[in-house]
Specification:
It comes from Dicentrarchus labrax (European seabass). The protein is built from 46 helices and 22 strands. The chain has 948 residues and is an alpha/beta fold. Strand 13, helix 38 and strand 14 form a beta-alpha-beta unit.
Length: 948
């Protein structure tokens, strides 16, 4: 091509460079071009020179061609992408190997190492150079890479010799990181609690699709290989609700690294808070971002940054709260030069997607709702933080209260109030409950039920702490009304403009005084760069939402449309922006324009939803006495009515979207986003009249709430509302985090469930014990599905009891649990006395022949069983022969599933014989058993109902 010709014939370029480039170009064009090139050379060169030229690639013979495909140089070409990624971080070592073998000069090395190139560009240049040096050089490189792989030491690159200054910088950075992370800010106002003293492992899990990884993850696993979905990507996402412990987890990770106790493969960790990055309005380069926002190197900045660029695999960035960044993630504006300046969010997005600083591992936290498909595309893996487990709550409370008698009392009171226990799965609520233990232990019957109750408790607790009186009187709120309104306005306007960090000026605008600050709800914002003046933030974003809710309830300044808009979050920002613009939050006209277009991001909607939940709770009848003397009761009543109307209207909207069922099918509602939130708002109101009213208009047979992030808290609210349904429903809660506590919370609505689907929900035998104890008393309850939980033989006695007691029970599905022959025997005990069960599913357990025999003998004379699945249970021919007895006698069985077992010919013969006496059975599934192809063919011909 003309262009290629011009590229090589650049005037003034040294001849040998041109020659090299020409050779490279010809080489990349393949064997035929090389052949043509050689032929051309032979023509132009004097004969004596041409004779020496022979080229193994230039061959017409097929066999020789094949040989050529496998040469080392060819491998460099065909496996280039993977070699590029393997070479990053060990280029120095590879260069050294080539220098030693005599293939590379120091000029070659310098050429590869040019600092303007990114590590991947360097790797590519390196490979090009090697190819130009020929087969032996390529061989040296491949050997080098192989050795690296064998020693598995890519991360601990032994050839890396960081410059002296880097160690000084590392020391400075780690002591700064350590200082920033050794205390938890939520304890700042009242007592000092080090992270070590209180840190409790949260439940960190990979997505359900990662079947290869089981059990909770530890801090190290976050950057480990487990659960990797996309090896090319560098960014790990940790997602979880507000208060689930995301920031604390990162804090822990930072602290462990700074102490040398974890993640030591990383020489440098740079922690960022997206909340704080919002206040950076300058355009920065990556270097400025790192050094100005995390830690400034005292000397040799360039050298240190170059080291970072050269060794990306030794560096980790963390970005806390991506959801709080003002701009939603986008990968449109690409940037790949680390020295180019750009707005901080553009830098951040390019870092996350890997256009900038490819190879540097990044850990990002966010609320899941704020993670869109564009970001997902760039994720290496995703982990979900699901708060504390029941034992985590126990551990946390014991750590929080050094006095074991107090801890025991708090735990005891949680056991008697399971709604509150459910709330404590959220670490932030567990923290409040522990913090307010005196109030909790003193409130007897009136112990908190709702999230609003818990936040009211902390409000009172903080005021009490600052008060000179030993206990606050009834008028405690009135006495502190000014503070509530000042902080309320700050919070409210912050929520409306997505502002979480406030300047002195913002505080002044809302009238926040020194005294208000002293109450402890606001803390000084930590800033690694410490270049900014004093800034404040609420102890936690949920506390900001709570104050915002208080403001909506109590203020004279909010207008009539505030509550309706709050329940329809889209309109909120537009309306309230006009009133105030916080200096820290809305720097540029660009952002204002974006906001005024009414595009609210997912996290804004989420914060408004949390605020709305609090408003519902605060305006409930049971809290109205609090507002006497704070706000005219007519105003409170009017606002309460508005909330009730909004909730009812919101529900109606959901019900209207239910499609009419196809004839013959059940009417089914699949919960849309926002449905569970409305249910939670209704729960906060604690007025059964409202719940009843909402449910009176819902007429469905099946309610599907799969993948709705339903944990114990949501179960409490669901049960509270759904118990008022007029007609029984099938309640489908598959793929959530219900757990045993959630199961217990669901019990009040069991009587309206005809079927309960709880697949994949972390339920253990203990949860089943409680569920069945209630289930046997519920007339409507007929079906249960518990695929993929943590059930063992210990739960089967309860099912046995259920089968004996309920002679109208239809279906039990227990697939993918840990039930063995013992469990099957227990089940058989129940089955013997049951005359109703139609479906029994035990797929993926371990019942073996003994279990199959026990079930078979119990079901031999069943007149109800229609479908039985023992797929993947280690059942052999003895089991199959026993099961043949059911077939012989049954008049109801239609399908028997025995796929993936170890049945041999003998077992199948028994089944064939039995089928001769049975016309009712439609199919027996036998794929993947111990049968030869010939056996399969022959037996399939004899009996067409066998499916192989
Ligand atoms: P998120 O970032 O998900 O909103 P945070 O990490 O800020 O949640 O947690 C809120 C509060 O909950 C913390 O300030 C702390 O008091 C408590 N907390 C969270 N996680 C833990 C944990 N793993 N151990 C102890 N306390 C925790």
């Amino acid at each position: 091509m003309q262009k290629e010709y011009q590229d090589i014939q650049v005037p003034g370029r040294a001849l040998y460079t041109k020659a090299r480039q020409l050779l490279d170009l010809v080489y990349t064009k393949g064997v035929d071009t090389c052949g043509l090139f050689l032929a051309a050379l032979n023509q132009v060169l004097p004969e004596a020179q041409g004779v020496g030229l022979s080229f193994s690639g230039c061959c017409s013979n097929l066999e020789e061609k094949k040989k050529y495909q496998g040469t080392s140089t060819q491998i460099l070409l065909t496996q280039r992408p993977s070699l590029v990624s393997q070479l990053q971080g060990c280029i120095d070592g590879a260069l050294k190997a080539l220098v030693i073998s005599g293939h590379f000069s120091s000029a070659d090395c310098d050429d590869v190492r040019l600092p303007i190139h990114t590590p991947s560009q360097q790797a590519r240049r390196f490979l090009d150079h090697v190819r130009s040096k020929g087969e032996l050089a390529a061989k040296v490189v491949l050997q080098f890479i192989q050795q690296k792989q064998e020693s598995g030491s890519q991360l601990n690159e032994d050839t890396v010799t960081p410059p002296k200054e880097l160690f000084k910088y590392q020391k400075k950075l780690s002591s700064s990181v350590s200082a920033q992370s050794c205390f938890l800010s939520t304890y700042g106002g009242t007592s000092h609690m080090s992270l070590d003293d209180i840190y409790t492992e949260g439940q960190l899990e990979l997505s359900h699709e990662c079947v290869d990884v089981h059990g909770p993850l530890g801090v190290e696993d976050i950057v480990g290989t487990a659960g990797t979905m996309n090896k090319e990507a560098d960014t790990v996402l940790v997602s979880g609700d507000a208060g689930s412990g995301k920031s604390t987890l990162l804090q822990r990770l930072h602290l462990l690294w700074a102490r040398g106790a974890a993640l030591q493969d990383f020489l440098l960790i740079f922690p960022f808070s997206c909340r704080r990055l919002n206040s950076e309005h300058r355009e920065l380069s990556v270097q400025e971002l790192l050094f100005q926002h995390c830690c400034w190197p005292d000397r040799e900045q360039e050298e240190i940054f170059q080291f970072i660029l050269d060794h990306p695999h030794l560096i980790l960035f963390t970005f806390d709260g991506l959801d709080e960044l003002k701009q939603s993630f986008s990968d449109e504006h690409r940037l790949c030069c680390p020295t180019q300046r750009a707005p901080v969010h553009i830098l951040l997005f390019n870092l996350i997607q890997g256009s900038l600083m490819k190879g540097v591992r990044k850990v990002v936290t966010s609320r899941p709702e704020a993670v869109g498909p564009v970001l997902k595309k760039h994720l290496r893996k995703e982990a979900f933080l699901k708060g504390f487990s029941p034992s985590g709550i126990d551990y946390f409370v014991r750590k929080h209260h050094r006095d074991p008698t107090v801890a025991a009392k708090v735990l005891e009171s949680l056991q008697t109030n399971t709604a509150l226990l459910g709330l404590c799965h959220s670490p932030v609520l567990c923290w409040i409950v522990s913090q307010c233990y005196k109030e909790l232990l003193g409130c007897g019957e009136g112990s908190p039920q709702t999230i609003t109750d818990v936040y009211l408790m902390i409000l009172q607790h903080f005021f009490q702490h600052q008060s000179s009186q030993s206990t606050l009187g009834i008028g405690w709120l009135q006495e502190n009304l000014e503070t509530v309104l000042h902080l309320g306005q700050l919070a409210f306007e912050g929520i409306a403009t997505s502002c979480y960090i406030f300047t002195d000026r913002d505080l002044e605008t809302c009238g926040v005084t020194e005294k208000d600050i002293c109450m402890g709800f606001l803390i000084q914002s930590k800033d690694m760069s410490s270049t900014h003046s004093q800034r404040y933030e609420f102890l936690h974003v949920t506390l900001q939402c709570f104050f915002s809710g208080l403001y909506i309830v109590l203020s004279n300044d909010t207008d009539r449309s505030t509550i309706p808009k709050l329940f329809e979050p889209k309109g909120m920002r537009e309306a309230d922006l006009r009133s105030t613009c916080f200096s820290a939050c809305l720097p540029s006209t660009y952002q204002q324009e974006q906001v005024l277009e009414g595009e609210s991001t997912a996290v804004e909607t989420l914060n408004l939803q949390i605020t709305a939940t609090f408003v519902s709770g605060l305006l409930s009848q049971r809290h109205q006495s609090l507002w006497i003397h704070c706000c005219p009761s007519a105003v409170i009543e009017k606002r309460a009515k508005q909330v009730v109307r909004c909730l009812s209207k919101g529900m109606q909207k959901h019900f209207k979207s239910i499609p009419q069922p196809v004839e013959g099918e059940k009417k089914s509602m699949h919960a849309m986003p926002g449905f569970v939130w409305l249910i939670k708002c209704i729960y906060e109101m604690q007025e059964s009249r409202i719940a009843k009213d909402a449910m009176s208009k819902l007429e469905v047979d099946h309610l599907k709430l799969t993948y709705c992030k339903i944990g114990p808290v949501e179960c409490t609210a669901l049960a509270y509302v759904l118990q008022h349904l007029k007609n029984p429903v099938g309640l489908q809660l598959d793929n959530n985090s219900v757990g045993d506590v959630g199961v217990e919370q669901l019990l009040p609505c069991m009587h309206i469930c005809n079927s309960l689907y709880l697949r994949n929900n972390n339920i253990t035998d203990e949860g089943i014990r409680k569920l069945i104890a209630k289930g046997v008393q519920c007339d409507n309850f007929q079906k249960i599905a518990l695929f993929n939980n943590q059930l063992t033989d210990a739960c089967t006695q309860h099912f046995s009891h259920l089968l004996k007691t309920k002679q109208d029970f239809l279906s039990i599905r227990l697939g993918n649990n840990n039930i063995t022959a013992e469990g099957a025997k227990q089940l058989a005990e129940g089955l013997k006395f049951n005359h109703s069960l139609q479906f029994l599913g035990l797929w993926g357990n371990e019942i073996g022949d003994a279990g199959a025999e026990a079930l078979a003998s119990a079901l031999e004379s069943s007149k109800s069983l229609v479908w039985l699945s023992l797929v993947g249970n280690g059942v052999g021919s003895a089991g199959a022969c026993a099961l043949a007895n059911i077939i012989k006698n049954s008049t109801s069985l239609e399908e028997l599933w025995l796929t993936e077992n170890c049945i041999t010919r003998t077992g199948v013969e028994c089944l064939i014989q039995a089928l001769k006496h049975n016309t009712h059975v439609k199919s027996i599934w036998l794929r993947n058993n111990y049968l030869s192809l010939e056996e399969v063919e022959e037996m399939a011909q004899r009996e067409s109902r066998l499916v192989f």
